[in-house]
Specification:
Number of strands: 0
Strand content: under 5%
CATH class: Mainly Alpha
């Protein structure tokens, strides 16, 4: 599995909805790729930290910037 494919599947992997065959391929990749291990760990930390944030905690301009960044990332 190429690193880019792992990045595309990380959300499904972490929420447990990734099909078993893909999960096995992803986990095999993680055994060989330290940067992807770091990426997964950072993603988990982000999820844990964001569980403490509420939309009302972010100024409107920050919300707009995050949405813009996400849209730009999706378009790439």
């Amino acid at each position: 599995m190429p690193c880019q494919e792992l990045v595309e599947l990380v959300t499904a992997y972490l929420d447990g909805s990734l099909p078993a065959a893909d999960r096995e391929r992803l986990e095999a990749h993680l055994k060989l790729c330290d940067p992807c291990i770091t990426y997964i760990e950072q993603f988990r930390e982000t999820i844990a930290a964001s569980g403490h944030l509420h939309v009302d905690d972010l100024p409107p301009e920050t919300q707009d910037e995050l949405l813009r960044l996400f849209r730009d990332w999706q378009a790439a």
